[in-house]
Design a protein that fits this description.
- The protein is mainly α.
- It has 2 domains: about 60 residues, Winged helix-like DNA-binding domain superfamily/Winged helix DNA-binding domain (Arc Repressor Mutant, subunit A, Orthogonal Bundle), CATH 1.10.10.10; about 150 residues, GntR ligand-binding domain-like (Four Helix Bundle (Hemerythrin (Met), subunit A)).
- The protein has 10 helices and 3 strands; from the N terminus they run H-E-H-H-E-E-H-H-H-H-H-H-H.
- A 3-stranded antiparallel β-sheet has the order 1-3-2.
- The termini are far apart.
Length: about 260
């Protein structure tokens, strides 16, 4: 007779750990800039995206060199990189200006966002249930910060953290190249949204994040795709309406 079978020791399940993604605001990290240049680059990006530097304002090399404590040559290099991302406009013999995105540039940017972000939400919905729940929990805390900014009527913060919500989703989806692409597009869009939309448009847009998280948490890819598409369409409509209003005013004034 054989004795009772020995029970095999069970391996404890590994806890699902989801860390908060490290995002430097709307920061891009282009290659080729020295650390001191990267620091100045990030500060300029943040100031433009949060509308502390308004579209059309001139960026004077001497002033920037004094502010950041670097040479004019370094400032020129930073401005060149910003212009390559469509954030600054360089005009021969006139200097550098904070860019004002055109109608077509905004249309193109939203088309790119739809392509990238639809893939992002599909990837999040395809994750395992436990990991999805942890990610959604992190992002719900981000929504609390959005609501606080709305209550405080802090428009600059609303624009920044709204953009970071989308960047965090991309970071959690795990494709670093898609995150870089989205950072580039969203930085330009934050500039456009700040310049051409009204406060209530952004408040309504932020309110749509919660429903999107519900769908992701349930792993419902169809609903998540539909809600994301509608969310981006609402943002685009508000921006296009703002651009149209600006155009009408310019024509009335004869410019």
């Amino acid at each position: 007779m054989t004795g009772p079978k020995e029970k095999k020791p069970t391996t404890p399940k590994r806890a699902i750990v989801v860390e908060e993604p490290e995002l430097s605001g709307l920061g891009l990290k282009p290659a080729g800039l020295a650390p001191v240049e990267q620091a100045a680059f990030q500060k300029l990006i943040a100031a433009i995206a949060e509308r502390r530097l308004l579209p059309g304002i001139r960026l004077v090399e001497d002033e920037l060199a004094n502010i950041f404590g670097v040479s004019r040559e370094r400032i020129r290099r930073i401005l060149l990189v910003l212009s390559q991302h469509g954030i600054v406009r360089l005009e021969p013999n006139r200097g550098a200006y904070v860019a004002r995105p055109t109608y077509k540039e905004c249309r193109d940017a939203f088309e790119a966002r739809r392509l990238v972000e639809r893939h992002v939400v599909a990837a999040l919905c395809a994750l395992g249930p436990a990991r999805r729940r942890m990610i959604v929990s992190h992002l719900r805390r981000h929504i609390e910060a959005e609501q606080a900014a709305i209550a405080a009527q802090d428009r600059a913060t609303e624009i920044r953290i709204s953009a970071e919500f989308h960047l965090k989703m991309a970071a959690y989806a795990g494709n670093q190249r898609l995150l870089w692409m989205l950072q580039d597009v969203i930085t330009q869009m934050s500039l456009a949204m700040a310049a051409h939309t009204h406060g209530h448009d952004l408040d309504c847009s932020l309110g749509e994040h919660a429903g999107l998280l519900d769908a992701i948490g349930e792993g419902n890819a169809n609903d998540a795709d539909r809600l994301l598409t509608a969310h981006l369409e609402h943002m685009e409509t508000a921006l296009m309406h703002g651009l149209h209003e600006d155009g009408d005013l310019a024509s009335v004034l004869g410019h």
